[in-house]
Design goal:
It is a single chain. This protein has 116 residues and is mainly α. It has helices spanning 2-24, 26-34, 37-50, 53-82, 87-112. The two termini are 31 Å apart. The chain has a domain at 52-116.
């Protein structure tokens, strides 16, 4: 149980650090947020929990394939905000576009036999 709490505290601390750095400097905030910290943590927790190299390899490959559609959010959000839409509407629409991109991409990768 304490390991689960430790995972949550460390993961949450990274999110708080990224948001605080982002308030002070867009550049450094973007650098910190663009690091694959969630992936690094997930891969580390998976390894520590299972010691299974094959699971770490499989997750690493899956993350690689899924990075591409995540860019939709970072393209849509500034475009929508730049057109004068409010933050809530823009974030909602960007998230909807992200979900659609993930769904389409997952369907495509499955259809092509890249992932199962």
């Amino acid at each position: 149980m304490w390991q689960l709490v430790l995972k949550g505290v460390l993961s949450g601390a990274l999110v708080v650090a990224a948001s605080e750095v982002g308030r002070r400097s867009s550049l450094w905030g973007a650098i910190l947020v663009s690091l694959p910290l969630t992936s690094i943590l997930a891969l580390t927790w998976l390894w520590l929990d299972t010691r299974d190299v094959d699971q770490v390899v499989d997750l690493s490959w899956a993350i690689l394939w899924i990075v591409l559609p995540s860019m939709v959010l970072f393209l849509a959000l500034p475009l929508l905000l730049g057109r004068g839409l409010g933050f809530g509407i823009s974030m909602g629409a960007a998230c909807a576009a992200l979900v659609a991109a993930y769904a389409g991409y997952a369907w495509l990768l499955t259809r092509l036999g890249v992932v199962t």
